[in-house]
Amino acid sequence: MTRKRIAVSIEAAPKKAFATAADWPGWSRSGKTEELAVQALADYGARYSPVAKLGGEEFPKTGGLDFEVVERQGGGGGTEFGVPSNVTDQDRRRTSAKDADRLARLVEAAWQTFETVAAAAPEELRKGPRGGGRNTSKVVAHVVESDEAYAREMGIKLTAPIDEVRAAIVDVLRRPSDGSPIADRRWTPRYAAHRIAWHALDHAWEIEDRTEPAG
Asked: Is the pTM here over 0.85, yes or no?
């Protein structure tokens, strides 16, 4: 079986690390150490696969993947909080028209996955060991508010409705780039795609994991 190389960027702080698949927006997982983060990334391959296919990309079989760390960066407070916060050298790579279209399609697939999961979920979600955790409508509102904030980070002034905000985000992502920050700020197109898709999928998978099985 031909094995597929997955390039991975590591962002590590003292108490948490993120492993991000550099060429697959949204496929990013955390762990207490670099090794555990890479293992979590591998474990979530099967959950990411339908997202990639929804975005029109052929995803390799998860049993035939080789994860290769190509970059390591120190993390900070955002990392410890649970957010992949660093714009890496991998994120600063140029995007051709083909690359840009792929990024946009995978971000759209992440949003679609989130919307589908949220629509099928009950309002009441299983609470954590101390009773914490938002219910479905609150998670949906959080993702919408975050996407509006992400749009502002990309120089987009629209605030509503969310479909128009997301369409504007996709329009920016579909533009070829030399890898420079969008709107002369901090995020590059590749980082924006990773961050936005990761956030939508992280909460989609949270809803799935916190949904009580049908009795």
From this structure: yes
Per-residue three-class SS string for the chain: CCCEEEEEEEEECCCCEEEEECCCCCCEEEECCHHHHHHHHHHCHHHHHHHHHHCCCCCCCHHHEEEEEEEEEECCHHHHHCCCCCCCCHHHCCECHHHHHHHHHHHHHHHHHHHHHHHHCCCCCCCCCCCCCCCHHHHHHHHHHHHHHHHHHCCCCCCCCHHHHHHHHHHHHCCCECCCCHHHCCCCHHHHHHHHHHHHHHHHHHHHHHCCCCC
For the segment 17-43, what is each residue's pLDDT rounded down to a tens digit?
Answer: 999 999 999 999 999 999 999 999 999
Question: Which residues lie across from 30 on neighbouring strands?
Answer: 18
Question: Which residue, chain included where needed, has tokens 């960066």?
Answer: 73
Per-residue pLDDT of 39-70, as tens digits, reads 999 999 999 999 999 999 988 876 678 999 99
